[in-house]
């Protein structure tokens, strides 16, 4: 009889603890926030140490990296990407280096 009571108590503890260990799924926002038009304000720009690179390469790297990380600053300036070799190189490098990093 004691074994049955012990078994029931252990079973009840396992059931209660199993239910409490499941994390709730977080609700995702209904829509992704849009990037503001034009250049990013200095205070809001993501920070990367790109000292020594041309400014167009730096801007492309930031845009590519943020796109790979799928942040709200994800952006690809298609006009610049097609016409500006430095921006394109920076964007491609930023995207490949940050792909998979969150």
- Major pleated sheet: none
Helix/strand/pairing category: mainly alpha
Provide the residue-averaged pLDDT.
77
Q: Please bin the fraction of helical residues.
A: 40-55%
In DSSP terms, counting alpha (H) and pi (I) runs of 4 or more, how many helices?
4
Strand content: under 5%
Write the H/E string, N to C.
Answer: HHHH
Distance between the termini: 55 Å
Low-confidence stretches: none
Shape: rod-shaped
Rg calculated over all Cα atoms:
25 Å
How is this structure best described in words?
With 102 residues, the protein is an all-alpha fold. 52% of the residues lie in helices and 0% in strands. The chain has four helices and no strands. Helix 2 runs parallel beside helix 4 (85-98).
List the helices and strands and how they pair.
Blueprint lengths: L1 H19 L34 H14 L9 H6 L1 H14 L4
List the keywords.
about 100 residues, mainly alpha, 4 helices, about 50% helix
Condensed summary:
It contains four helices and no strands.
